[in-house]
Amino acid sequence: MKKIIDLSNEDAKAHFLKGSSYFGDDLPPYLSFEPILNDVATALDGKNFKEFKSSCPSYLPKVNYSFLTNKDGKFAWRPLELIHPAIYVSLVNVICQADNWKNIQERLSQEGNAVECCSIPVLSIDNQEKDVASKIKSWWIKVEQQALSYSLEYSHVLHTDVVDCYGSLYTHSISWAMHGFGESKSRKGDPSLLGEKIDYHIKAGRYGQTNGISQGSVLMDLIAEIVLSFVDEEINKKLGEQTDFRILRYRDDYRIFTNSDERAEEILKVISQELLLVGMKLGVSKTILSRNVVEGSIKQDKLAAIDLQDLGDTNAKTIQKQLLRLHSFGQRFPNSGALRRLVSEFYDKLNKEKEKPEDLEVQVAIATDIGFVSPSTFPKIAGILSHLINLAPETERLYLCNKVREKMRRVPHNGYLEMWLQRLLHPLGVSFDSEELICKIVNDERVDLWENSWISKRDLKKALCTSKIVDTELLKNLSPVMDPEETRLFTEKALYTS
Questions:
Q1: Phi, psi of 48 (to 5 degrees)
Q2: Which of 16, 81, 236, 273 could form a disulfide with 114 if both were Cys (CB 3.0 to 4.6 A apart)?
Q3: 246 - beta bridge partners?
C-alpha cells in the first residue's frame, strides 16, 4: 500500500487514466470507461483540451454527465458526476507534467502539528488487491484504530464532518492552496499558475460554476485533499503546538480528542471558521461529542451489527428469518455501512442454497424491500435476488422479475440503482426501459453522455463514442446468477462508509 503522491508523474498519469480511478464505485462487469479514456488520451496526445475546441465548454450546460444515487428511497439524493473525458484527460495531462506533479507532491507532503491527515489517496502495490481495498485498509489503520488507541490519553472525542464537501468547495481556493493567498490574489486569472489551470478545467465541465467539484473520481479526491490540506495549515496556525488535544481528519471527517467539553468546542470553532474560507461548513446534525473515546470512535450501526452477528444462525434458522432480521436492522440503520456488510455476508451464505424453498416469493419480497428502503445496498441485493430467482422454475422467473422491477422503479431519481437492476434482469431476458442514459447504451441505443458540440476535432469526437463503454461479448454471455466477485469491494467499502 502506497500513497499516490509517492508515484512518479508518469505512473500517476497511468493511474488516473484507469477506469476505476475515473469512477470509483462498483459498476456491472460489462461497463468500463477505460476504453474511452485510452482513445481520448491518444487523440489529445498530451495536449490541453483548449486546442481542440471551437467554443468555450463552460458556456454550455451538461458538459459533464451527472446521475443520482438515492440514500433513503425517498428524497435524499446524491449526485455523481462523470467528468467529460476530454476535460478529464486534459486535466490529467496538466497535473502530471513533471514540475506540476512535484508541486502537488510538496503541497501534500507538508505535515502540520494540529491536524493529522489520514486520507491522501492510496493504491495497491501488487495485483492481488484493488486500489479501493487499499484505501479501505488505510482508513481502518489510520483512523479507527488510531482513534481507539487515543482512549489511553483522552477522555473526550468530538466527531463532525463537512456538509456536501465536494459540492460546496470554492474552486478559486484551489489556487490559494497551491500558491498561497498573496500570490493567488496578485496573479488572479494568470493562466500559467497551476491552481488557475485546475480551476479552469473544473469550471469548463460545470457551466462555469465556482462552487463545487465533481464527485466520483480519484482525481477529484486528490484535488479535495489539496484544498483541505490548505485548511489544515490554517488550523495549525490558529491552534499552535499540539499539547492537550489530537485531531484526525479523513477527507471531510474530523475527530477531535481532548480531555474536556470546553477544549473540544474551542477547537471545533477554529475548524469551522477556517472551512468557511473555502466555502465549506460543518454539519450540526452530525456533530457528536462523546465522553468515552472507545464508544465514540465506533459507529453505532457497527456496534449493533456486532451484536447481531453474535446471535448466530441458530437464532434464525431459516432464510426467511435471517432476511427478516436484516430487514429489521435496515429499518434501524438504513443505508449504513454495517447493513451493507451484513447483506454481503448473508449473500455469501445464501450461495450454498440449491433448492427452491416453499416461501421463495416471500424471500424475494423481503430482500427487495431491504433494497427499496436502503438503495445503497442494491448492488449486493441484486446478487441475492439473482440467486433466489434462479432457484425458481423457469416458468416463475419472469413473474418474480417483473414484481422486483416494478417495485424498484418506485425509488425516485436513482440512475445508479437502475444500472444494477438492469444487470439483474438482462440475462433473464426481462426488458428494462430506463431513462438512465447508461442503461440506454447497454440497450444498444445511440446516446451521448456528454455535451460535445464545443469540440472541433473529428478524431476527438470519434474517441468519445459511448458504445465502447459496454463489453458486448461479456454482456451476451452474462450469467443470470451474479458472481460475488462482481461486487467484491462492496463489503470492504462498508468498513468506512456511513
A1: -85, 145
A2: 236
A3: 257
